[in-house]
Amino acid sequence: MTLTESRNIAAEKAGPERPWGRWSARAALMALVGLVVLVVAYPIIRLLVETFFPGWTFDVSSFGDLFASRGIKDVFVDTAIYVAGTLILTTLFGGFLAWSMERTDARIAKLSGIMPIIPLLVPPIGSVLGYLTLFSPSSGLVNIALRATLFPDLEEGPVSVTNFPGLIFITAVNLAPISYLILSSALRNADASLEEAARISGASTVKTLLRITIPTIRPALVSSALMTGILAVGAFTYPFFIGSSSGITTAAVFVFRGFSSWPPQQDIAIALSVLLMVIVQIAVYAQRRFAKSERRSVIAGKRGASAPLALGRWFWPVRIAIIGYLCSVLIPILALVVGSLLPYRGAALNFANMSLRNYTEVLTSSITQRALLNSFTFGAVAAFVAMAIATALTYSAMNSARTARWTDPILYAPSAIPQTALAAAFLVSFAGPPFNLYGTAALLVIAYATTFLPQAAAAASSAVSQINVQLVEAAYISGASQVRVIRSVIMPMLVSGLFAGWIIVFFMAVNEVTVSALLAGIGVPVVGQVSVEYFDTGRVAEVGAMSVIISVVAAVVVLFTYRVVSRTAATRSL
User: Fold this and answer.
1) Rounded to 5 degrees, what angle do the CA atoms 344, 346, 348 make?
2) 363 Cβ contact partners less than 8 Å away, ≥ 6 residues apart
3) CB–CB of 66/275 below 8 Å?
4) Which of 167, 206, 188, 166 lies closest to 115, judged by CA?
5) DSSP conformation class of 365
6) The pLDDT value given to residue 298
7) What is the dihedral of CA 188, 190, 194, 198, to 10 degrees?
């Protein structure tokens, strides 16, 4: 019996159906869809119209100005190097972690569930500043120690992260959990018996990996590479904070400079945003074609439990590599905390220099107070809005195959657009007439909710899939109204999964920099915007203190919310 049939039985018991009830639900769904299309599709369409049809006449002169602008060749070269290097290294990191955790005896079982949420626990700005605190050429703590002991003749270095290798490495370390999440899921669902058969037939571990494992998960590898490429194309935090001092300018940084410099070069920045979006869409189309072709030659078999691969003498090298990755994530955070206690970057590391002065400056400054309050408030509201929209559309799709065909493209559309281009689209569409939302809380909340709608949709889809259909059917058959079924039966089953999605969107919105730097105004400061301004003016230690405060307060907020939600769910289940 389907949910629709159960509702029909409930309706028969309840008596004649009120015509306006069915139509009001459908109208509400259509209104919600219209709202989502407005905030997702309208900015992109408006950006394209403003770029190709300024004044309603076809004109591509902005692209000519873009290609003729000073230093644009270096921007393209820097972006290509950064994206290619990040894509390769991130896939290697994520693939190694997925293979070692899912297929070998070197895995650390307790880390398998933690690995995907590491980017949420480590703010990008915090990770970057932690690495700069350790390895900045002149003022890094590690470099100061090395020059004092082993290299007394050097004035800078010997280790530096303010170059392409350092920039790519730091980005890859922070994006690797996303690649890990995709590839580990593919390995978990793949048929491990094929690899066992290869090893039994005499194939080495390396040959089995290259001939069996990698071809089996090739579609997931391509999807992981595409996701990493999209994130790298739109990445702003890492290139801005690391590359600015070494002359590295990626497309995302160039777009930001185009909007924030004086005189502004908005036409050129918008043209580059459109170009990035077109390139990404071509890559998405190619990935979809590849995925369709791969379905014709999938290696399949009956999946069963299998013993992990015994690495023998390679056990400890692989285990140490896993621990090394975790250290590369956690040690910069410790360095960030230490650096936030020093008066400035490069100060002598001793207890006499350590104090809470930077925290005092941050907590007593009216700008940073408002930025922290705004970021947490906007993040919480945006997370609620995104989860509400994603849950409503996902639940509707579960009950209607027709609805399912168009909900996924709408919900996941922002994931195929670089954040820089998306922010530029919001700036062009909503900053001026007729909306005039530039620098307002409404624009930031809408932008955050739209940007992270794909993450909310993924969490909502996972939560909705856990609904016990039999309980829902029983409630309808017993005569419960749809509102009561949703309130008393469905919501208690959804609350844990929806809370997990809320946490994800909340963390990402609070730590967001790209959209914040372009859309936040002087009257409504947020952490991302203030961090960029402070870094530009040399107030790095205060940015570090802000990052630490964000991590601590966010953890407290999440813990408090979790306890409230847990108690609510327990009360409803009684």
Assistant:
1) 95
2) 369, 549
3) yes
4) 188
5) -
6) 46
7) -60
